[in-house]
Amino acid sequence: MRLSPTGHFSLLALCLLLHEVQSQVMSMSPAANGTRSTEEVTKVLRRHKRYLAFPEGSSVSGAICMTIGMIGNPDVDYLSWAVNWGVAYDLPNHQWVIQHAHGLNATLAKDTIKRRSRRAFYDEVQSIFDNMGFNGRSCVARALCESARFMLPSEERGNMLQELVRTVFSLPPSPVAAHEPQAHHQYDRIYRRSKRNSRECHEIYPGCQFSLLALALGKYMAATTTKFSSFNYM
């Protein structure tokens, strides 16, 4: 079979086309371009930072329950005395994660964090005493007043219970920033003014008929001040 000059030209063009296609396929294979392929695979497998957020209102809690036999020990079913202690912590939700995206408390001063923690604790104490029929806000204010007056100064050290109560019912010495919540200003004002007020704390806050500090410290209250004889428990 003989081909015309036109047929020879067409066959040559087809061979060149097949050779070019084969070259392109080889250049795109992983063996021919291993570095580029590796970079592309690395980009595909790269993952952004992830976070865990729980539904609004979620919390984790722990409890310790202790039972001691009083009569009939070890048969504690006869008469026993039980003490239960529990604590709950809020779990981070979506809004909390967004607020701390650049680090935990990265934009807050240390004293601001302390005031915020104390405010949360005071609010819980207020709710507890309100539910018991007392004036929770007045009792917290009276506790801050008594702490400012009668607790040992920070330069001196008391026993463990005294230090715990003094830490909880005291506020940082730095001024409250203007952008902080109004509750921070109110608690700080109560604590500062109590040191300058000549009236007794139970007279300033008559809505609370008992002393939280006296309940917490008990017999240790006598060691906190030389003015204990004038301190009114109720």
Q: What overall geometry do the principal axes of the alpha carbons give? A: elongated
Largest sheet features: 2 strands, antiparallel
Helical run tally: 9
Strand order of the largest sheet: 1-2
Mean pLDDT: 74
Give the helix/strand class. Answer: mainly alpha
| Proportion of helical residues | 40-55%
Q: How big a fraction of the residues is strand?
A: 5-15%
Q: Which regions contain 5 or more consecutive residues with pLDDT less than 50?
A: 220-234
**C-alpha-based Rg, rounded:** 36 Å
Question: What topology does this entry show?
Answer:
Elements lengths: L4 H24 L5 H12 L13 E13 L7 E12 L3 H6 L10 H22 L4 H15 L9 H9 L13 H15 L4 H4 L7 H6 L17
Antiparallel strand pairs: 1-2
Helix pairs in contact: 4-5, 5-7
Note down, in words, how this protein is organized:
The chain is mainly alpha-helical and 234 residues long. It has three domains: 5-45; 49-107, no CATH class; 108-234, no CATH class. Helices cover 48% and strands 11% of the residues. The chain has nine helices and two strands; from the N terminus they run H-H-E-E-H-H-H-H-H-H-H. It has a two-stranded antiparallel sheet with strand order 1-2. The chain is elongated, with a radius of gyration of 36 Å. Mean pLDDT is 74; it is low at 220-234.
